Amino acid sequence: MAKTGHYERWREDFALVQGLGIDVLRYGPPYYATHLGPGRYDWDFADQVFPELKRLGIAPIVDLCHFGVPDWIGDFQNPDFPALFAEYAGAFAQRFPWITLYTPVNEIYVAANFSARYGMWNECLASDAAFVTATKHLVKANILATEAIANVQPNGRFIQSESSEYFHAVEPAAIKVADHLNELRFLALDLNYGYDVCGTMYEYLMDNGMTREEYHFFLDRNVRAVCIMGNDYYATNEHIVYPDGSMFVCEMFGYYVITKQYYDRYRLPVMHTETNNRDDARLEKDGRVWLEQQWSNVLRLKNDGVPIVGFTWYSLIDQVDWDSLLTENSGHVNHYGLFDLDRRIRPVGEAYRELIKTWSGQVNSGLMCLRK
After folding, report:
1. Does the record carry Hydrolase as a key word (predicted)?
2. Main-chain dihedrals φ then ψ at residue 139, nearest 5 degrees
């Protein structure tokens, strides 16, 4: 947010959103700078931006935790995190009682994977035990925050933005590995929605530190009735898997096939909560082609009876250092935005604006994501 200049140019950025015809925006306050300690909050930035969104008629889908926590909490291994986060979520809802749409914790699977299996973010651990711990704390935080917000805003709806993955076995010897990974991709949503996992996944959880009591916390809670399942899809979401667990990216099925798998598992309303591709006409699938492809997948799902309620392009403004997943502070600009860093519209931005104009009244309004 700082590298894109949003903290200084947020009024201009919101005007760009409005100019595209977008009336729903995935957006959140900076958690690291807002939650100062137990029961202590700095609402200065939030008190500026959210009233402006309300004035402009843009409904926020409020993203409260996006891949990290304030330094004083530590990381996702902290067992106090779920209760502390729920307190924060409840306090936010009390301060802005008119807001009804939330993503309490964004992409739990990715946050736990990169923090506790790949050793890249937050706790920088790389083990199954650390991954299970991070996952259970993140999901518990999401559930407790959902309940805390619902106590304040009974009309609240909660969108679980989750990476929709698939793992393809390259040969018969890789099937067992791919099967495990294909169950693991569901784990965060399984726990969040109280879906009873398969026997081998239950053994995996017990072997890596989850207790029976903790597992039953997730089975016994029920937030499904107020949830929309958000599926994020990029060209990097599908993987060819080798017997030793190594893999490489290879887009094969696409958003339709993979999202249908998730819908058949949970039977909840669906939102396409993130996608993009680089806006470069030299690519076989540049931003405009990718936008058309994703939108066609959304329409096909809707026509085939899947209750899909929204579509999101991430992001409004070009990104910085996402090519290294923020592990390097090199200032490298990634051209995935609808606008560049000077706030000049890109061709994909023009295509997105036209898509919204053309389809307005035929399907739900255009949705997009400003931050990640």
Report:
1. yes
2. -65, -40
Q: Please tell me what DSSP assigns to residue 366.
A: P
Q: Which residue has the tokens 């993979």?
A: 258
- Judge contact between 125 and 111, C-beta under 8 A: no
Q: Is the dihedral of CA 231, 330, 27, 124 positive or negative?
A: positive
Q: What angle do CA 349, 49, 150 make, to 5 degrees?
A: 100
User: Which pLDDT does position 361 carry in this prediction?
Assistant: 73
Domain boundaries, the chain: 6-369
CA 248 to CA 250: how far, in whole Å?
7
Q: For residue range 192-251, what is the model confidence (pLDDT) as tens digits?
A: 999 999 999 999 999 999 999 999 999 999 899 999 999 999 999 999 999 999 999 999
Q: How far apart are CA 189 and CA 199, in angstroms?
A: 17
- Summarize pLDDT for 117-162 with one digit per residue, the tens: 999 999 999 999 999 999 999 999 999 999 999 999 999 999 999 9
Q: Are the C-beta atoms of 353 and 14 separated by less than 8 Å? A: no
At residue 257, the pLDDT reads 97
DSSP H helices, 65-162, are: 81-95, 108-112, 128-152
Nearest to 143 by CA among 60, 235, 223, 66: 223
Report the 10 Å Cβ neighbour count for 61.
Answer: 26
Residues 366 and 22: beta-carbon distance below 8 Å: yes
Residue 291 CA to chain centroid, in angstroms?
18
Residues 20-29: what's their mean pLDDT? 96
